[in-house]
Write a structure and sequence with these properties.
elongated, binds magnesium ion, two-stranded antiparallel sheet, single chain, mainly alpha, binds cytidine-5'-triphosphate
C-alpha cells in the first residue's frame, strides 16, 4: 500500500476512537466517576470525567464503527484502498479504550498537581490513542493484527496529534470546550 493508503487506513481505523471524546464533551455532566473522592488531597479524576460522558462516548464510537462497517465496501471503492470493517468488539475496544485512555490521563494529571482542564502536552494528544489501541488489541486481537500494521501505527501516531489540536481548537472556538486542548 502506498503512503496515502496507509494514512487513509490509519484515519479510517481510528475514527471510532476519535469520536468518543467529542461526544463526551457534548453529553458530559452529572455524577463524576470518582464520586468526588480525593487521593493525597487532590481529586482522583476530577469533575471532567463523568459516567454519562464516558457512556455516551463509548456508545457514539461503537455506533460509528458499526455504521462505518456498513459503508466500508462503498468507501473503499471510492478511495481506491481496501479499508477495514469493524467487528463489534473492535469498535467497542476502540471507543471504550479511547475513553479509558483519557480517564487515565486525568488520573496522571491530578497526581502531578494539574487542575481540571490544565494542559499536558503530549499526554492530551495521545492518551486516547494508546487506550484505544490497547483495548482493541485485547478485545479483537486478530482484527488488530490485520489492521494495525507498523506503518499504520506510525501514521496514527503522527497524524492524530495534528488532528486533535485542530478539532479541539474548533470546539473551543465554537464555545463547546473551555480550553483549546
Ligand atoms: N467528559 C465527560 N466524561 C468523560 C470525558 C469528558 O463528561 N469521560 C466531558 C466533561 O464535561 C469534560 C469535557 O467533556 O469537562 C471535556 O473533556 P476533557 O478535556 O477530557 O476534560 P477536562 O474537563 O479538561 O478535565 P481533565 O483535566 O481531567 O482532562
Ligand atoms: Mg481537557
Amino acid at each position: 500500500m502506498d503512503i496515502l493508503g496507509v494514512v487513509a487506513t490509519a484515519l479510517w481505523a481510528m475514527l471510532p476512537a476519535y469520536v468518543p471524546n467529542n461526544a463526551a464533551v457534548l453529553a458530559g455532566g452529572g455524577r463524576p466517576i470518582d464520586g468526588g473522592r480525593t487521593m493525597g488531597g487532590r481529586r482522583v479524576l476530577g469533575d471532567g470525567k463523568t459516567w454519562r460522558g464516558t457512556l455516551a462516548g463509548t456508545l457514539a464510537g461503537t455506533a460509528l464503527a458499526l455504521a462505518l462497517s456498513a459503508v466500508t465496501p462503498t468507501v473503499s471503492d471510492v478511495v481506491g484502498y481496501s479499508l477495514p470493517r469493524f467487528p463489534l468488539l473492535a469498535g467497542l475496544g476502540l471507543a471504550f479504550g479511547a475513553m479509558l485512555g483519557d480517564i487515565g490521563a486525568s488520573f496522571v494529571k491530578r497526581r502531578s498537581g494539574r487542575e481540571r482542564g490544565a494542559a499536558f502536552p503530549g499526554l492530551d494528544q495521545l492518551d486516547f490513542v494508546v487506550g484505544a489501541l490497547l483495548c482493541a488489541f485485547v478485545l479483537a486481537p486478530s482484527w488488530f493484527a490485520r489492521t494495525f500494521t507498523l506503518p499504520v501505527v506510525v501514521a496514527i501516531l503522527l497524524v492524530t496529534p495534528l488532528l486533535h489540536v485542530v478539532t479541539n481548537g474548533i470546539a473551543y472556538l465554537l464555545g463547546l470546550k473551555n480550553e483549546p486542548w
